[in-house]
Write a structure and sequence with these properties.
Strand 4 and strand 5 form a beta hairpin. The relative contact order is 0.12. Strands 1, 2, 3, 4, 5, 6, 7 and 8 form an 8-stranded mixed beta sheet that branches. This protein is of the alpha+beta class and 390 residues long. The protein is globular. It has 10 helices and 8 strands.
């Protein structure tokens, strides 16, 4: 399936660079999955290429990459290594979101973005075992309290993707000051005393994301580590188009599954046939269904991504649409992976075959935000409002 979504010569050039790297990631992706490890070499290649700096605005030393480009390149990385794409996507998307929203004061944001432009890797640590997905609004059990001239942070975070190579982490906490408390974020270097990684990540899918637990054992921080304090006791609900890196990852994985299925069908010829199975009508029908589904999902994703290169007038509708892209992408990717395995049959279920890994990785998309039930509930609420308007 020829890519048709790079719009300019610069995007095509960057996509070619990303594509060359992504294709080289495939052997290590398989080995990492089998070992439950992390693709250190692949991650370092992305860093060395400068890609991890592209989301930083030009004024701070980056490339000023748009949301559309983020989707374009993340999808391509996922064709080579979906786990690495998802992990690095949290770095890219979080940097892009922080730069776009400017919710931090300039004296906090500028040195952070300059550090990313210099090659530092970061992620946001938000999820906790006791609170579940942060999108549900649960109170953070990780706490921060005044300590001397600064703060002390205690807690444990789950699903900290890129943990083996992180330099910086933005930690969501409950800040307790006397009788008051509320959400607050701290920017913490990974080499600060009391910060450690507990290597507990051992999942069925996305095994190579390195999403271990982040342990914060009485971490003493200076006052300037407090980078954001939510007002009115809660975080503002704003659209985050940079989360489109999630559907981009899973559609990239689905495209990789399609590629594996085609390669198998074009080369597999049982002695009952005079040519490979790709010529069989029922195999052709499965391929046709895969291509139609991928075309619809990719056009939807890139159409929505292009909208966010400009100011979106109706942000509420935009939030719903962003969620719909993710839901549709995951449903599509699941369907494509299933059909790809139908084409390869039992061959694709061998532990050494990439298809079974892609099938497991894609299944993990159901657990990434935004959650499907939340998106459907949002559309339900909008439908109710529509029917009650005067």
């Amino acid at each position: 399936m020829t890519d048709t979504f790079a719009r300019t010569a610069a995007e095509r050039e960057r996509l070619a660079l990303i594509g060359e790297m992504a294709d080289s990631f495939k052997p290590l992706a398989q080995a990492v999955d089998e070992a439950g490890g992390f693709a250190f070499e692949s991650a370092e290649r992305l860093r060395a290429s400068g890609y991890t700096t592209w989301a930083v605005p030009e004024a701070y030393g980056g490339a000023g990459m748009s949301v559309y480009e983020l989707v374009l390149y993340q999808e391509r990385i996922a064709m080579g290594d979906p786990a690495l794409a998802l992990a690095i996507g949290w770095h890219m998307g979080t940097v892009g979101d922080l730069a776009a929203k400017k919710s931090w004061s300039e004296d906090k944001l500028a040195p952070f973005l300059q550090a990313i432009a210099a090659g530092k890797l970061m992620n946001r640590a938000a999820t906790e075992k006791g609170t579940g997905s942060p999108t549900r609004g649960g109170k953070m059990q990780t706490t921060a309290e005044p300590h001397g001239d600064g703060y002390m942070v205690r807690g444990r975070k789950t699903f900290t993707s890129l943990a083996p190579v992180l330099d910086l982490v933005v930690v969501n906490t409950t800040l307790i000051e006397g009788d008051t408390e509320g959400p607050a974020d701290f920017l913490i270097p990974m080499d600060v005393p009391g910060v450690s990684v507990d290597p507990v990540w051992n999942m069925m899918g996305m095994r190579g994301t390195g999403s271990h637990d982040l342990v914060l054992d009485e971490v003493v921080l200076p006052a300037e580590a407090l980078v954001y304090r939510a007002t009115a006791g809660k975080r503002a609900g704003q659209a985050n188009p940079h989360l489109l890196h999630v559907p981009a990852c899973y559609l990239g994985a689905a495209r990789a599954a399609r590629e594996e299925a085609l390669n198998f069908a074009a080369s597999y010829q049982p002695n009952t046939l005079d040519r490979p199975i790709i010529h069989l009508p029922h195999i052709g029908a499965l391929i046709g269904e895969i291509d139609v589904e991928l075309a619809a999902a990719r056009h939807f994703m890139y159409s929505v991504a292009s909208k966010w290169e400009h100011v979106v007038a109706d942000e509420a509708a935009g939030i719903a649409e962003l969620g719909a892209v993710k839901v549709f992408a995951i449903r599509t990717a699941l369907s494509v992976a299933d059909k790809a395995l139908r084409i390869a049959g039992a061959h694709g279920l061998a532990q050494t075959h990439p298809l079974q890994r892609l099938f497991r990785d894609i299944r993990f998309g159901l657990s990434n935000p935004p959650m499907e039930d939340s998106v459907l509930r949002l559309y339900h609420q909008r439908a109710i409002q529509e029917t009650t308007l005067p």
